[in-house]
Amino acid sequence: MYDFIHDISVRPEPFSKYTAKELWTRQHLSRQMLEFHLNQQTDLASRRIEIIDDSARWIDTQLNLSGKSLCDLGCGPGLYSQRFAELGAKVTGVDFSRYTLGYARDHSDQSISYIHADYLADKLPSGFDVITLIYTDLCVLSPGQRYKLLGRMREMLKPEGHVVIDVAGTGLLKSRKELTLIENKLMGGFWASGDYVGIQKSFIYEEQYLALDRYIIVEPGETWQIYNWYQHYTPLMIEKELRNSGFVVSSMVGDLTGASLISDGDLIGVIALTM
Question: Could you tell me if 32 and 190 are in contact, meaning their C-beta atoms sit under 8 angstroms apart?
Fold first, then answer.
């Protein structure tokens, strides 16, 4: 018992353990995440429809999507993919959650091609004009994973192709705090369908602009954990990271609706071009 409690109390080294895929592939959690994707009262898994609509329209004003081949990485239930298709893009959606992809196939334009794949590991198609990575997907990856993914995205693009991404700004980090919670059915049954005790241990790594929410789920027959890392960026940080991966920033805004950029704001939206 001492070893277990001591391990929970210790601040992990940044990205020393990585379990984010579990959030989207465990059966109960994948169903919960789809519900949050579709819930119009929260932005926990996807933004609300009016923001998604505004984002798709703004991206279209910047890139003229009609007739363009577009890959929506981490497409989830296809909320953005559908809107890009309605704007005339030839869309491929990629996600590693079979459950959310099932919803996307059932509820999206039949012209969209959906692929079940891990965009960090599996073979992906190429020859795209545009690749989108939306809802701060880049922020949950380690530096090595981000470099790998951006390199893969560059290889998937045609010459002078564009990436569209958003990342968390430092304003979001300022609103966070370190905490410890131990609750029966933490988050109201989110983590498991039966009985469980949930432990949340949150850490802030100020020098790295990094946060960690560590969840330990203790069920009667199983104990398992989620490490949810979240990288935050200044405009200079994301510009440098993209440049090191072979991209040059063409637009940087406060979010993908085209809002004005605030240096210490909550979000940063970026369109970048292959060098």
Answer: yes
Q: What share of the chain is helix, strand, coil (3-state, %, to 5)?
A: 35, 30, 35
CA angle (86 as vertex; 80, 87 as ends), nearest 5: 90
Tell me whether residue 127 is exposed, middle or buried, using C-beta atoms within 10 angstroms of its C-beta: 0 to 12, 13 to 18, 19 or more. Answer: exposed
Mean pLDDT of 93-101: 89
Name the one residue in this structure whose structure tokens are 């959690």: 29
Q: How many CA atoms lie within 13 A of 116 on its CB side?
A: 11
DSSP state for residue 135 in the 8-state scheme: S
Distances (CA, A) of 247 to 81, 162, 222: 23, 9, 44
Contact present, 165 and 247 (Cβ < 8 Å) = no
In a domain, residue 59? The reply is yes
- Number of folded domains that form the chain: 1
Per-residue pLDDT of 199-222, as tens digits, reads: 999 999 999 999 999 999 999 999
Other beta carbons less than 10 A from residue 68's beta carbon:
20
The CATH number given to whatever domain includes residue 96 is 3.40.50.150
- Which pLDDT tens digit goes with each residue over 69-90? 999 999 988 999 999 999 999 9
Closest by CA position to 164, among listed 244, 33, 61, 44: 61
Segments of the chain assigned E as strands: 69-73, 90-95, 113-116, 128-133, 157-169, 179-184, 197-205, 210-219, 222-233, 247-253, 267-274
180 domain residue, yes or no: no
Q: Identify the domain containing residue 56 by its residue range.
A: 29-170+234-274
